[in-house]
Design brief:
This is Malate dehydrogenase. Helices cover about 40% and strands about 20% of the residues. It is of the alpha/beta class and about 350 residues long. The chain has a 6-stranded parallel beta sheet, sandwiched between helices. Helix 1 links the parallel strand 3 and strand 4. The structure holds nicotinamide-adenine-dinucleotide and (2S)-2-hydroxybutanedioic acid.
Length: about 350
């Protein structure tokens, strides 16, 4: 809820939260999170993970179908949040009202042989409609855009919000956390270091070569040979396709995406709650390059984006990758902007 500390709760001695947080016995404000597309492959496990998050007090699960069952199921879990299901256009407003964070995994996923851009024709319209409703019912919410192609759906959202007079670049995020999750996993495997301590920034966008992992900045340092860095880069860029092919027509990443989406939403909630030094890579309006939107490390705070951080020092290979990705990323951004203004 936007009014902080309406009902003050403490998490001290609570045995039901599974994730460690930066809270002790201090007050935790009420926060409403809405998931749009909550009955889908990502939506269901993401609903579960948000139900496990002790920072959430109200969880609104919206979809065009099947939400009563998902909501009834998730609502039986004995954690803090109250869960409600909403189905169909007529209930979208109620689902959104009072939301602090809106997570959008609504839309169709890829099948083998498709690019994320092949989803544009269907998902652009879905995202546009949902963002029009966000502008109307919860214009101050932080929007976490998962629906693909993220490189275009985020610009679509920005244009919808501009038209409605509600656009605040600090509150709109393309969720690229799955690229970071993959880069960390793949790097830890090659570098033979415990994955829990690994950090790898991933910048650019969220499709093919627009995904640019910065392994030169990975920690702990491992001094991997160039060929291994190049193979790791390619595997991170093709991570989504690897899952799409393995699922052989039954969709794309859902479980790892739900995990990544839950990490990012948790970071947004921590930022809103005033936890210091919350930094995640995400696709936002940006001055880091000449492109209007770009993923890089972002410091999250009480208003959403607190600071878009620069790229840091890049290797020659990464500099080359950065120049190569720009035309494709710009074209996807412009496609989204054009669609929203048609
Ligand atoms: N950002 C990322 O890293 C990332 C990762 C994986 C998947 N994705 C994308 O997430 C999207 C969803 O993937 P999925 O596997 O969950 O698909 P899915 O088909 O399993 O689920 C999508 C859900 O969206 C719902 N939906 C459709 N139109 C809607 C509307 N107007 N309002 C509300 N809900 C609506 C459907 O009913 C369905 O339940 C896809 O576009 C996919 O490409 C993004
Ligand atoms: O690859 C996809 O189509 C889904 C998602 O963008 C991913 O990276 O897994």
């Amino acid at each position: 809820m936007s009014s902080l500390f309406r009902s003050v709760k403490t998490l001290k001695n609570s045995s039901s939260h599974l994730l460690r947080r930066g809270y002790g016995s201090e007050a935790v404000p009420e926060r409403k999170v809405a998931v749009l597309g909550a009955a889908g492959g990502i939506g269901q496990p993401l609903a579960l993970l948000m139900k496990l998050n002790p920072l959430v007090s109200n969880l609104a699960l919206y979809d065009i179908a099947n939400t009563p069952g998902v909501a009834a199921d998730v609502s039986h879990i004995n954690t803090r949040s109250e869960v409600k299901g909403y189905m169909g256009d007529a209930e979208l407003g109620k689902a959104l009202e009072g939301s602090d964070v809106v997570i959008i995994p609504a839309g169709v996923p890829r099948k083998p042989g498709m690019t994320r851009d092949d989803l544009f024709n269907i998902n652009a319209g879905i995202v546009k409609g949902l963002c029009e409703a966000i502008a109307k019912y919860c214009p101050n919410a932080l929007v976490n855009m998962i629906s693909n192609p993220v490189n275009s759906t985020v610009p679509i959202a920005s244009e919808v919000f501009k038209k409605a007079g509600t656009y605040d670049p600090k509150r709109l995020f393309g969720v690229t956390t799955l690229d970071v999750v993959r880069a960390k996993t793949f790097y830890a495997g090659k570098a033979k270091v415990p994955v829990a301590g690994v950090n790898v920034p991933v910048v650019g966008g969220h499709a093919g070569i627009t995904i640019l992992p910065l392994f030169s900045q990975a920690t702990p340092k491992a001094n991997l040979p160039d060929e291994e860095i190049q193979a790791l880069t390619k595997r991170t860029q093709d991570g989504g396709t690897e899952v799409v092919e393995a699922k052989a027509g039954k969709g794309s990443a859902t479980l790892s995406m739900a995990y990544a989406g839950a990490i990012f939403a948790d970071a947004c909630l921590k930022g809103l709650n005033g936890v210091p030094d919350v930094v995640e890579c995400t696709f936002v309006q940006s001055n880091v390059t000449e492109l209007p939107f770009f993923a890089s490390k972002v410091r999250l705070g009480k208003n959403g984006v607190e600071e878009v951080l620069g790229l840091g020092a890049l290797s020659d290979y990464e500099k080359e990758g950065l120049e190569k990705l720009k035309p494709e990323l710009l074209a996807s951004i412009e496609k989204g902007i054009k669609f929203a203004n048609q």
